[in-house]
Amino acid sequence: MAASNPLATVPPALKKITVFMRRAEELDRDTSHPDSKLVAYYCRTHAMDQAMLLRTPENSKELMPFLIALMDRLEDDKKSLPAQSPAEAKGLVEAFADRVLQKADEDDQLGVWDKDTAKVFYAAGVFYEAMEQFKELAGPEVERKRKYCKWKASDILNALKEGRTPTQGGGFSATPGRGIRLPPPALPPAPAPAPAPRPSPRPSPSLPLLTSLPLPPPSTAPPPPPGPLPRPASSSSTRSASSTRSANAPTQAVLEDAKELCYFAIAALEHREVPLAQERLEKALHKLRELA
């Protein structure tokens, strides 16, 4: 009998991280895009960061097996990923999220408003939210795009529920010179026109299937702040930038690994798991010796 997956069930106290864990699992199954595994890894690292914030003295014992399994998974995954600086990793994750958002915007501009379009907007928002781990590197534009994706997904779901036409516009315009429009924040939606045949969505190559996970309940989210969103960088320019590694990328990666291991050792000590804390600290020292 195959061993059970200790990460298959997220503890109730960590419900907030479920969407990042499931999105990572979805990307694990994707073979259409070379960066899917990397984005899955950063979805899990963000889930780990959030899990540590949600840990309390009362739930620490319950969460420890899950946290240990997640830490082990991150350590294993990192071995198969190239060394990258935080700035390089941020650029790759953002470029991936931008491509997902562009696909959703193309469907939106074509008038293809269904649950699948809402799910793609929602997926892009999850990837932008995972970029919180990059802190100041992410910048305000990432937060604007996250809010926009959340608003678009909610608006489409509410429109389907209410029998009206969703607010079209915003996002990235694929047509040169067409400009980028955001929905007016104060105007109510116009009455729905008579139903008309809707075109099929455009094919979007090199994107994983992002519509298999359930959506959260629709909510009335405020529209994004006015102003244009930046167009995503072309895949060729992104790949060119990512292929040029900074000289200190390996050093930075080793330091980040050591910090994560020390952080988890402290968590283990708080739970009086001395052997586990010792093991993580020894691994951290081993990492730091690589810099000697």
From TrEMBL:
<dbReference type="InterPro" id="IPR044538">
    <property type="entry name" value="Vta1-like"/>
</dbReference>
<feature type="compositionally biased region" description="Pro residues">
    <location>
        <begin position="182"/>
        <end position="206"/>
    </location>
</feature>
<dbReference type="InterPro" id="IPR039431">
    <property type="entry name" value="Vta1/CALS_N"/>
</dbReference>
<dbReference type="InterPro" id="IPR023175">
    <property type="entry name" value="Vta1/CALS_N_sf"/>
</dbReference>
<feature type="compositionally biased region" description="Pro residues">
    <location>
        <begin position="214"/>
        <end position="231"/>
    </location>
</feature>
<keyword id="KW-0472">Membrane</keyword>
<feature type="domain" description="Vta1/callose synthase N-terminal">
    <location>
        <begin position="17"/>
        <end position="162"/>
    </location>
</feature>
<dbReference type="GO" id="GO:0005771">
    <property type="term" value="C:multivesicular body"/>
</dbReference>
<dbReference type="GO" id="GO:0032511">
    <property type="term" value="P:late endosome to vacuole transport via multivesicular body sorting pathway"/>
</dbReference>
<protein>
    <recommendedName>
        <fullName>Vta1/callose synthase N-terminal domain-containing protein</fullName>
    </recommendedName>
</protein>
<dbReference type="Pfam" id="PF04652">
    <property type="entry name" value="Vta1"/>
</dbReference>
<feature type="compositionally biased region" description="Low complexity">
    <location>
        <begin position="232"/>
        <end position="251"/>
    </location>
</feature>
<feature type="region of interest" description="Disordered">
    <location>
        <begin position="160"/>
        <end position="252"/>
    </location>
</feature>
